Amino acid sequence: AADKIDTIVSLSKRRGFVYSCSEIYGGQKAAWDYGPLGVELKENLKRQWWRYMVTSREDVVGIDSSVILAPEVWVASGHVATFSDPLTECTSCHKRYRADHLEEAYEEKHGKPPVNGLADLNCPNCGNKGTFTEPKQFSGLLSTHLGPTQDSGSVAYLRPETAQGIFTNFGQVLQTSRKKPPFGIAQMGKSFRNEITPGNFIFRTREFEQMEMEFFVKPGEDEQWQEYWMEQRWNWYTGLGMREENMRWFEHPQEKLSHYSKRTADIEYRFRFGGSEWGELEGVANRTDYDLKAHSKASGTELHYFDQEKGERYTPYVIEPAAGVGRSLLAFLLDAYNEDEAPNAKGVMEKRAVMRLDPRLAPVKVAVLPLSRNPQLSPKAKGLAADLRQNWNIEFDDAGAIGRRYRRQDEIGTPFCVTVDFDTLEDNAVTVRERDTMKQERVSLDQIQGYLGSRLLG
Ligand code: ATP
């Protein structure tokens, strides 16, 4: 339902996933901070991406480049000239929009683009029709000044994508890693865009994290590699439990492709924001040899590959799966959130909120709960929590009724609750409760590490 997003926003704040930034000063618009649970979920997500895309493969290596690159990079890449969005303003209520977003929302609703462009559209804010100004291009680059002077010579840009740090290091990675095409270079990190209309919680912000991989292939093999990576990326989300009914492909029409792209297909998720049902989760683009050629020309350093066996030299084509950390995190939260029923202390069924996150993503892996606050149970449970903490992120909670404590863990997606009770003192075993089925099992303490380890995976 459309209000699911509101549920997630308030749960995020209440439980410590995501807070609004600088809230004590009234908040910084459209900026968000990750709390104790959010940062764990975010790190787990990034770790899963890195494993899947880099360390589990022999043909991909990683780098971590600077956020501020030489300004020449952004001239050569085409960003200084073309990285801009069409800005329009409603002349009635003075609200600003991206013209392309307004037209896309119209098309999604009506199944066809507006015949007369913006003139056909109602302002989403005040409802007036045909009140938009002629769109003006607005640069998406965020700039700053380096050093003590603030003139044009000191301008530097915060990267709007992590990809360029990969292209500029192409030659060095090729040499030091001794890889040859087809091979990839991956990077995760912050990117910055001066978005006109940030919003929809963490979906669109001016500061965000990306996970990108540039896969370098022989020209002519690019189309099949794009198919390959599209399939891989789809499988990454579904492999971590995202439901296919909430995902779809969006193929960019030829006339709307970015300046470097031969083909781009996006994985979209059904975010169900008011106004638009679907939103981009990740783009898989064929960037051709555009970037390597542009940097070769502008820098004077040849960024190509020489195949010694065949004696041929070529500039690789590039397939780029580019994902956003915040958007994935939001999609996984929306997808995992569920309401079902569980028996309360009196055995009566009550509503329960449960976050069915894959155990690999769950911020807390195990909660250790002494049945009651007691001088014998508490130390035993604390000792167990300390042992388990060597391997996983553990919560210890001894406050309140056991049912209430289970609910608190269900709501944040903790896969297992381990209860230490009076029998534990006799049989040296604990009760393990699984989140989704709520089934309970007695497990001996000398087997608990192995029991949890085999169920929590990586
Ligand atoms: P959009 O059309 O939504 O502005 P885009 O096509 O410009 O996105 P890309 O340049 O393909 O986005 O960036 C790759 C990924 O980075 C996106 O799929 C998204 O997950 C993430 N991303 C891009 N811009 C933002 C942003 N402003 N806030 C959060 N994530 C972003």
TrEMBL record:
Per its UniProt record, what InterPro entries does this chain match?
aa-tRNA-synt_IIb, aa-tRNA-synth_II, aa-tRNA-synth_II/BPL/LPL, Anticodon-bd, Anticodon-bd_dom_sf, Gly-tRNA_synthase/POLG2, Gly_tRNA_ligase_bac, GlyRS-like_core
Would the keyword S-adenosyl-L-methionine be found if you checked this record's keyword annotation? no
What is the main EC category here? ligase
What keywords sit in the KW lines? Aminoacyl-tRNA synthetase, ATP-binding, Cytoplasm, Ligase, Nucleotide-binding, Protein biosynthesis
What is catalysed by this protein? Answer: tRNA(Gly) + glycine + ATP = glycyl-tRNA(Gly) + AMP + diphosphate
List the GO molecular function terms: glycine-tRNA ligase activity
Q: What is its EC number?
A: 6.1.1.14
Question: Where does this protein hold substrate?
Answer: R98, E161, F208, E209, Q210, M211, E212, E320, P321, A322, A323, G324
Identify the residues that bind ATP: 193-195, 203-208, 280-281, 324-327
Say which domain of life the source belongs to: Bacteria
State a single Pfam family of this protein.
HGTP_anticodon
Q: Which residues form the Aminoacyl-transfer RNA synthetases class-II family profile domain?
A: 6-363
The question of whether Nucleotide-binding is a record keyword is answered with yes
Q: Which family does it belong to?
A: Belongs to the class-II aminoacyl-tRNA synthetase family.
Report the function annotation for this chain. Answer: Catalyzes the attachment of glycine to tRNA(Gly).
State the oligomer form and interacting partners. Answer: Homodimer.
Identification of the protein by name: Glycine--tRNA ligase
Task: Please report the organism this UniProt entry assigns to the protein.
Answer: Streptomyces mutomycini
According to the entry, what is the taxonomic lineage of the organism?
Bacteria, Bacillati, Actinomycetota, Actinomycetes, Kitasatosporales
Which gene produces this protein?
glyQS
